[in-house]
Amino acid sequence: MAIDGVSGRTSYIGTGIVNIRSQIESLTAQLANGRVSTTYAGDGTGRSLAIGMRAQVANIASYSDTMTNINTRISVANLSLQRLNAIGSEVKGAAASAGATLDNTGQSAGQKTAGLDFFDAVDMLNAQSSGRYLFSGRATDTAPVTSADQIMNGNGAAIAGLKQVISERHDADVGTNGMGRTIVSAGATPTSVQIGEDFAANPYATPTAIGASPFGLKIASISTTIAGATTTQPTETPPTTAPAAPNPVAMGIDLNGNLPKEGDTVSFTFNLPDGTQETIKLTASSQTPLPANSFAIDPGDPLAVPAVPASPTITAGNLKTALSNAVQQLSGSALAAASAIKAGDDFFNNTPPLRVAGSAPFGAATGQVAGTKADTVFWYNGEPDSPTDPARGTAIGRVDDAITVQYGIRADEQALRKQLQTVAVFAAVTTSASDPNGANKLAALNQRVAANLAVVPGEQTIQNIQADLAGAQASMKASGDRQTQTKALAQTMLDSIEGVNNDEVATKILALQTSLQASYQLTSQLYQMSLVKFL
């Protein structure tokens, strides 16, 4: 009879040992990575749910990354907006409190402040985050605002900047004789005075081929308290027949042979290029010396033989002289300031910018022409603002399955453009210390700058933009809080399917190690057995 070896009899023990070691290795892996299995196949019946839960957790992680990036961009943009807010307040305060003292460059301390703030504002609008320009709309790879120096001074001799555009407009508005392109003249009777735009001061002028220009003082109305005097409101002079372009207008007063009394007034109201109005109010006076803003009532000569009565004709001549002087003062002050504001609007608020057509301030300066990039600086290079394409919608991020936030900004939005424009104009204007109207011009400019930087109900403000961005951040925070809770629930579900209990796994490993040790000992003893020992 054959006797089998020990190995044959104990092969099943070896198989058991291998099985135990495999279980230990599997449990050790579970203990190391915290999962039941490294594949979904090992997750059992919960594998489908685990796949869905893991996809949800991955989506939440992706949304979290998106929100982090958006919050970073908004934070950088908010830093710029906060500084722009401060700039607006600084320049407004400087304009409101600025005096008429000029330095050797022809500017006040307030204008110097505006100059520094303008350069700072351009830097703020060219802010970047991770190589992305934040104020360019969708054109995120393009700096939205041209350099501050080029905006102010142009790019070479051939390409005009803001200062040149302001200068051209000033010459076209004020005119060669400093009368705001108006003519003060005697009217149709010896006791009448009239003022007209361009050639309209002469009611018998031959109509020209050109209509009224957009430049200079535009007469609006006339009124008087002089008894017996009559006024002519602005009337096209000479009249034209359609379809010819309307001629300029003129207005006037006729004393009709009457003498004004002490304190009687004549008021001439004008429209200025920036949309404001100014009124010249002249008061009849017999005082010596004549007070400011007055015209002399002719006293006649009662001591002459024969006595010379007071003359309405001479009084009308005095009114004409006083009106001419007042118009010249108005043109050199308020008109000059309004012209600068309008030039800034033409430069910043139009694409392409508008310039004076023809040779200012000569008669050829009768209209405006669109500048080109070959002759004029274009201040904004980003995506143009559009009423039908809101700026916020130029940057959209999905932060949840059904939620997106909008956080785009364009540097040419109304609030940003208006402030940049106003600060730039304030910083660009210079005034000669020898200009007799210089102090009044600066005062008129200060007044307009302060008014343009004030909050206007219904107009966009920088705070409105900040509120929009704050709304986007609030939406992201709410989404993030909700996703944190969702992720916790999903992770709990995943842990119940894929996770392991470390204490339980460790206990199983210890039990298997004990069993493995016993198996090793048994196997060792079996291999040491022999027939001799058995007998």
Explain the overall architecture:
The relative contact order is 0.15. Among the domains are: 6-34 and 500-533; 182-331, no CATH class. It has helices at 6-9, 11-33, 47-97, 109-125, 148-153, 162-174, 312-348, 414-428, 438-452, 462-498, 502-528, 531-534, and strands spanning 128-129, 132-133, 182-186, 192-197, 218-224, 230-236, 249-254, 265-271, 277-285, 294-296, 354-357, 367-370, 396-400, 403-406. It is rod-shaped and about 175 Å long. The model has no long low-confidence stretch (mean pLDDT 86). By secondary structure, the chain is of the alpha+beta class. The longest helix is centred in the first third of the chain and has 51 residues, at 47-97. Strands 3-4-7-6 form a four-stranded antiparallel β-sheet. It has a four-stranded mixed β-sheet with strand order 5-8-9-10, with helices on one face. Helix 3 packs parallel to helix 8, helix 3 (47-97) packs antiparallel against helix 9 (438-452) and helix 8 (414-428) runs antiparallel to helix 9 (438-452).
